[in-house]
Write a structure and sequence with these properties.
binds adenosine monophosphate, 9-stranded mixed β-sheet, globular, 12 helices, binds zinc ion
Length: about 425
């Protein structure tokens, strides 16, 4: 099933010709209208007008999130063209957020891409989408909302949290799809179980569109088992419209990235050099259709690789693999490079482990991982727990080469955030 079969299955040569035409237009617009890019191109000694091929892209300078912050509030906006109608910000953790502007056509285009994604998962206008993402400045909820309405399904703008109400809405209005973060999906699966609800029997849920933060295959399986649904990985970032940048099709082997809208590069995060197809590195995106705020070679910080093989679903837009983390998420613990995601994937392989965890770095480089137990495991059998603690310690050590202190805690005792989960607390005195 396709939303826009022609574009989604465009033969590669045509797709690349379209990319080039749109790239040239984007570069021309930023050179004409954005002082930041005029200066950057000058400093890099490149004449944007001299671009001839997609390969020439690598001569252009990168744009970073620091550049976006420095141009806050509106330094990168282009006001010629259609009206700028919407402001979003990225869910930045500290200081000023990044401000992102959408023109009328950007709002529409973002919804188009979501419609492609939804239909790609097998969703139809018969579906009922319960949108559990945060409505507001965050792109996650609103962009999905508009796209789902475009497909023609009923959208319930539930927002995050308040699990009791979520469950009520789900039952009363027969929600078939949820859109949420992996951390909230896990939490909600737990909640449903405690309420004695069997999702397969008592709910109509069929699919989960799960994204906005990194998660592992193990977590995908836990969510699927807990809620009786198929989970589709959903990737996006505010700088590129929010959700709908890349999404899994029914094959669920990597996420198709809409290459008529985004030009994909994978670079070595340390040297900035492009890597050969298939190698893992930092994803760099150039927007090809954004009007109000196009970005050239934007460094996402997200770590992934491009899947070279064509997808059996027939879409010609290439896939990227599950994001394994952000290059700035990497922790250095006692000299070893540790991604929180590696720890998560070890933990979620244990059936005894519940649905939440927290990594604490303290003192002189001590790593403690607090791990919630599942309800069934929390039986008070001390011996049993000690053994489990040892097994988890050993598996985590083998994965990240640092021996953690594992603290088993009661189900539901760790904090749950409404937006993106906070997985690491770093209080080291180094
Ligand atoms: P924001 O701009 O606030 O929407 O945050 C975007 C960031 O969230 C991305 O750059 C990724 O780091 C992260 N993110 C979004 N979706 C996913 C996903 N499916 N898997 C991993 N990380 C994700
Ligand atoms: Zn596919």
């Amino acid at each position: 099933m396709f939303w826009d079969r022609e574009v989604e299955t465009l033969p590669r040569p045509e797709l690349e010709a379209l990319q080039l035409a749109r790239l040239l237009r984007t570069v021309r617009r930023v050179r004409e209208h954005v002082p930041f890019y005029q200066q950057r191109f000058r400093e890099a000694g490149v004449d944007g007008a001299a671009l001839r091929s997609l390969a020439d892209l690598r001569r252009l300078p990168f744009t970073t999130s620091a550049d976006l912050r420095a141009s806050y509030p509106d330094g990168l906006v282009i006001h010629t063209g259609d009206e700028v109608v919407r402001l979003h910000t990225s869910s930045g953790t500290t200081g000023k957020p990044k401000a992102l502007f959408f023109s009328r056509s950007d709002v529409n285009q973002a919804a188009e891409l979501i419609a492609r994604c939804l239909v790609m998962t097998g969703a139809t206008r018969q579906d009922v989408l319960q949108n559990m993402m945060t409505y507001g400045l965050f792109t996650g909820a609103l962009v999905m909302h508009y796209g789902a309405e475009k497909v023609g399904m009923l959208v319930i703008p539930a927002g995050p949290g308040n699990s009791e109400r979520q469950l009520m809405l789900m039952k009363d209005f027969g929600s078939t799809i949820i859109h949420t973060t992996p951390s909230y999906a896990l939490y909600f699966a737990d909640f449903v179980e405690r309420r004695g609800v069997d999702p397969r029997r008592d709910l109509k849920l069929r699919k989960g569109l799960i994204g906005a933060e990194p998660y592992s295959e193990e977590t995908r399986r836990k969510i699927e088992e807990g809620l009786g649904i198929e989970v589709y990985n959903s990737y996006g970032l505010s700088e590129m419209n929010g959700p709908g940048v890349a999404f899994e099709c029914r094959e669920r082997q990597g996420m198709h990235i809409w290459e008529d809208n985004y030009l994909v590069e994978i670079i070595d995060p340390d040297t900035g050099e492009p890597l050969p197809e298939g190698e893992t590195g930092e994803l760099v995106l150039t927007s090809l259709a954004r009007e109000a705020m196009p970005l050239v070679r934007y460094r996402t910080r997200d770590i992934t690789s491009v899947v070279a093989e064509p997808c059996p679903c027939g879409r010609t837009h290439r896939r990227v693999n599950r994001i394994t983390g952000r290059s700035d998420d990497m922790l250095i613990v006692r000299g070893a490079n540790v991604y929180p995601q590696q720890i998560e994937s070890v933990l979620m392989r244990f059936p005894e482990v519940g649905r939440n965890y927290l990594i604490r770095l303290e003192g002189l480089d001590e790593m403690t991982v607090q791990v919630e137990l599942s309800d069934a495991t929390f039986d008070g059998q001390f011996e049993h727990l000690l053994k489990l603690q040892e097994r988890i310690t050993e598996k985590v050590r083998a994965e990240v080469m640092v021996k953690p202190k594992i603290e088993l805690v009661a189900p539901g005792s760790l904090p749950v955030s409404e937006g993106k989960a906070k997985r690491v607390i770093d209080n080291r005195k180094l």
